[in-house]
Specification:
six-stranded antiparallel β-sheet, 24% helix, SH3 type barrels, 3 helices, alpha+beta, 25% strand
Length: 128
């Protein structure tokens, strides 16, 4: 069962250079787990949450959270893909970084409303 703040890479997908972060709480809703990913920083990308080198062992240069690239998965899918070597588990993010990622989700114009609602229902971000 994945946990809030866990991270993973997608194996053999051609995009395994993007770290995915679980930002919802799988214990509260294992059928609707919201993930976002890190991407290289660029001034044209969403600036709601910037992550600097060293804030997570995977981050080697200035990056940002890609809220429009979020994915919704289930705990069952996560466990199945992890055991099938389709996901590569990484170190969880710190509580401080997870808090900043959630704060960014609350203000990002690119974060899907349905996924925002999941975080609001779990009381991880404030409703508008």
């Amino acid at each position: 069962m994945p946990n809030h703040g866990d991270t993973f890479l997608l194996a053999n997908s051609g995009i395994n250079n993007h770290l995915f972060i679980i930002i919802s709480d799988p214990l509260l809703d294992p059928d609707k787990i919201v993930t976002v990913n890190l991407t290289s920083w660029d001034s044209t990308k969403d600036q709601s949450c910037i992550v600097d080198s060293g804030e997570h062992p995977f981050v080697r240069h200035k990056s940002c959270i890609r809220y429009e690239g979020d994915r919704l998965i289930t705990a069952e899918q996560y466990d199945l893909h992890l055991s099938g070597d389709r996901l590569i588990s990484q170190s969880p993010v710190s509580e401080e970084l997870l808090g900043r990622i959630l704060a960014g989700a609350a203000v990002s114009r690119h974060f899907p409303l349905g996924h925002r609602k999941i975080l609001e229902d779990q009381r991880l971000i404030d409703g508008e």
